[in-house]
Amino acid sequence: MSKYTWIGWYNACVKYSWRIIGSHLFFLGVVGLVAYFTYGVFQQVPTGVNEVSTKASVVQTGAVVIGLFSIVLAALQVRVNASWNKVLSYHNHFGELITPDVLQKLEEVARAKEFEANLKAGTAICENTAKAIFEHGHSDRVVSCYLDEFEEFACAVNAGVVDDEYAYQLEGTRVARVWTVFRNYVQHCRSAPASSPTVYKQLQALAHRWKDRKEHEHKARERAQRRKERKGAIGSQV
Questions:
Q1: pLDDT tens digits, 131-152
Q2: Domain check: are 68 and 147 in the same one?
């Protein structure tokens, strides 16, 4: 795994560990608070004929309140566990999204078909190159095998099996670049007589969604930077 994957894994562990610890600390705090007030009310029960039954009712009420909060905690715990399982799903199935062997074969095809520069720059291969790849058996198999890995990953993310936010932080840029580079090749695949017009649809949908998000985030950062510069200019004038 790359260092970015390890960083993402570490951040996820810290994030979800504190969620789990925090939920348990919250429950213990609630139990302590309820027990404190229950004891206070218990001590104030006046002596008399109904003393025992009244105290029993106070204790029972406190137990019911604690039970209700335990149900809420259990529901929160289920949600945290579900989110954590989606993070684990990425590392269990897509921790090494593209194996070195597949990547090496793709680089060999890129040199043979002269689209190395497109891979490095993240720009679309031209129609002629896409056609040459599609019509050459070995090149077509290598590129399709490479894209199949991303299509499987996109299916998992779109279906909610893998946490979308976590996957976006780790693979958002690469997925968008892959679609940009090979979209013309995909069009040739879809137009082939024996092919399906929906091939790599999951990859396309995910790449477009994540690309739009990145553009929105970039514009938001630019607006924030402009506001900061304006405030700095006003401050210097004052």
A1: 999 999 999 999 999 999 999 9
A2: no
Q: Which of 94, 124, 142 is the last residue of a domain?
A: 94
Angle between helix axes 137-158 and 164-191 (nearest 10 degrees) is 140
Which residues lie below 8 Å from residue 41, measured CB to CB, with a gap of 6+? Answer: 58
Q: Return the ∠ at Cα 170 (arms to 167 and 176), rounded to 5°.
A: 85
Would you say the pTM of this structure is higher than 0.70? no
Ramachandran region of residue 160, left (φ > 0), alpha (ψ -120 to 50) or beta?
A: left
Say yes or no: 66 and 129 in one domain: no
Looking at the fold, whether 32 and 149 belong to one and the same domain comes out as: no
Q: What element of type H or E holds 205?
A: helix 201-237
Check the CA dihedral 107-171-217-233 and report its sign: negative
